[in-house]
Design brief:
This is Regulator of G-protein signaling 21-like. By secondary structure, the protein is mainly α. It is 56% helix and 5% strand.
């Protein structure tokens, strides 16, 4: 049974340089897309740590990868699933939804003294029209959030987060399951074949 050896450390957030590496690789021949993405994925997954416990390798098994196909929730609960999904979305230049969703999850843990400044940053980065990572939400939700950011609570982005989750569940997640990277990790793709 194919296994990938990975250390037991939490995945680090993807850096801009990781995104650039993924983007550059997309110019290669289509037959190598899955293999190239797999190589890039291995380069961004954590590889070592000075902590003796953290340096013990853990295994990403085919069985764990297969669990990701049960639901988007199962995929996002897995640290390797999350990292793989984020790398896949970056390779398709469509990572704004997962980044927003993760930002909302972090926002819910923010101390109340920092709530206002964080809410404004999220609004400017993801919600306002023409934002750098503008998410696809309806006008009514956008306007409601604009008003809520003036006096934010930990729930002021909940409606947008639900919309984005639904978009990922209906669009990005099925594409991920059909991708060469997922097919390779789950053992469904034969070496040398291309999943089109």
């Amino acid at each position: 049974m194919p296994e990938l050896m990975l250390p037991q450390t939490a995945p680090e957030p993807l850096k801009e340089s990781d995104s650039n590496n993924i983007q550059m690789g997309d110019k290669r021949k289509p037959k190598n897309v899955g293999k190239n993405l797999m190589c890039r994925l291995q380069s961004i997954l954590p590889s070592s740590s000075s902590n003796a416990e953290a340096s013990k390798p853990s295994k990403l098994t085919t069985e764990e990868a297969l669990l990701w196909s049960q639901s988007l929730e199962k995929l996002l609960e897995s640290k390797y699933g999350m990292t793989t999904f984020r790398a896949f979305l970056r390779s398709e230049f469509s990572d704004e939804n997962i980044e927003f969703w993760l930002t909302c999850e972090d926002f819910k843990k923010v101390k109340s003294s920092r709530l206002s400044s964080k809410a404004k940053k999220i609004y400017e980065h993801y919600i306002r029209a023409e934002a750098p990572k503008e998410i696809n939400i309806d006008h009514h939700t956008r306007e409601t959030i604009k008003a809520n950011v003036q006096n934010p609570t930990i729930h002021c982005f909940d409606d947008a987060q639900k919309i984005v989750y639904g978009l990922m569940e209906r669009d990005s997640y099925p594409r991920f399951l059909r991708s060469d990277i997922y097919q390779t990790l789950s053992g469904k793709l034969q070496p040398g074949s291309v999943n089109g």
